[in-house]
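User: Predict the full complex structure for these chains.
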Amino acid sequence: MDLSYNEDKEKRRRLTGEKTIRCCGQGENMEKYGFGVDVGGTSCKLGLFTDSGKLMEKWEIPTDTSEQGEHIIEHVAASLERRQRERGLADEQIIGVGIDTPGIAGRDGVVRGAVNLGWEACPVQEQLKMRLQKKVCVCNDANAAALGELWQGGGRGYRDMVMVTLGTGVGGAVILNGKVLAGAHGIAGEIGHMTVFHKEIERCVCGKYGCVEQYASAKGLIRITRKLLEKKDPYTILVDTPELSAKQILDAAKRGDRLALDAVEVLGKALGSALAAVAEVIDPEVFVIGGGIAGAGEIILRIVQKYYRPDVLPAGADIPFELARLGNDAGMYGSMKLLLDTSEEK
Amino acid sequence: MDLSYNEDKEKRRRLTGEKTIRCCGQGENMEKYGFGVDVGGTSCKLGLFTDSGKLMEKWEIPTDTSEQGEHIIEHVAASLERRQRERGLADEQIIGVGIDTPGIAGRDGVVRGAVNLGWEACPVQEQLKMRLQKKVCVCNDANAAALGELWQGGGRGYRDMVMVTLGTGVGGAVILNGKVLAGAHGIAGEIGHMTVFHKEIERCVCGKYGCVEQYASAKGLIRITRKLLEKKDPYTILVDTPELSAKQILDAAKRGDRLALDAVEVLGKALGSALAAVAEVIDPEVFVIGGGIAGAGEIILRIVQKYYRPDVLPAGADIPFELARLGNDAGMYGSMKLLLDTSEEK
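Assistant: Here is the predicted structure of the two-chain assembly.
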């Protein structure tokens, strides 16, 4: 059975789901459910899943970042409660809530440094648990997305996976034996900040020079393209406007634009050589590349592998590269998976 | 209690040990024992340990690599049997044998590609088990050394450790949660073959260019020093003779020799930047540096950290660097630890 996500299937599942749930409401079948929540800077994605991992329904609410984001958790809780009520689900049918956010999620369930949300430190687990009286698992958004992709996306069927998310920045996560590697100081899987070009003179947001993120993120791709445009290469359809986007550059590259292709080569070189190093450290079963830039598809995989292969030991040359498949739903899936894993452990 | 290894303690332990064993022989105390064996290209190191991990006695036998090394396992078995007999230990007192060798140790207990020993493929586990009628665990020598250092050496007290061995080549191992990470294709922890200098024109033994091993191994250090000597820098006591050794270079560096220090800087840069990448992938609790070159001591740690720190995210800057402490005994310790871990699991 193919569980990859798409609109048609979601509709079918929703229909099926509602039927099942009505049964449950009538006490004929006490199937269990859980909520997966992905809190982003603009919106929160919420999903209702069966305990076997089927997505029954998903919806979004805007993220209210006013007043240092102090209403975010309350809004999420209210939305989940409302959905539970509308579905006629009993409290004992809900295993709990898995929730991911930007920032660093501590073992105490407190999220620290989620700048996008206005949080310095937010006791997400405590707040949500108090409010809903349900089990709550909290994790970082990049880790959740990776777990989601491993569960039902590009990494499905594997246990050891490295995921890289090429978005505004470059996120990363290492999964070993089905579990996200946290690391001793919270920096495991920080592939975006591996130093790849020691001669870089511009500074990365992290304070270092020559990080993967400076070349392989949307911002990085635009930065590199602008540098190339300064050289006034005539062989390009791109122009240096304030609106120049990663998508424009990737579209131009796909149409064979030489300058755009040069910029994508820099991206491939930075990420490919970093992933070769990753392979020689943890030797995963699969690499999964996601995020907006990976939306360009095969061209990205091809160019990353072009630089990956000569840099890695022969035994690692054929580690497969897959595109992420769950898009913006990955975090929601991963949060639910974390909830399921944690429930199993107890 | 300090369990770090030294001669005096060994003597004390041996004495204590013999007493204990005599007791056992008399049936008063059925303490259990195990053998840890480290098979090297020149000699095999053998140790008798209590099941609580105390080394009672260690000895060596030459490694007979004649006839494609087909007598090695037989000689090890005979030596272990003899020692058991001399000690008056009953069969039921011996948990088993942990043994490490160069090459890749498969889950089937077969060692492949141990070129130094003359083995193409050797069914170490089966041979030793048949011969001794005891439980046998087989692992790779670099992994065993790392496990040994974690257990009773530089990594003692930690669970997540990265070990690098700077010998003729550069070996590496990743230990997470007390277990060696094997990787999906046998290349996990291959820190010696992470590419660090993309512009290198000489080829590494692995076939790639710019690997850590080309700068941070004994061979690498000599190679770099020779290159610097070609420039005829007058500020050095070193001369390019066929006998030029890593030890000479390191001694000269310790005495402030400018050219030797320059060579050590290259070593530090290669290893430091590779370990920064390692930190951003798996984020260990500690780095342990061993092997002949690490025998130079603090100078190596200092220079590696000099290049490590600016290359790693701030949260990883203070990961401790320790020197390995068990020297050539590390593999023997690690083999015994593997035996104990495997016995516990069952």
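Chain B has a mean pLDDT of 90.
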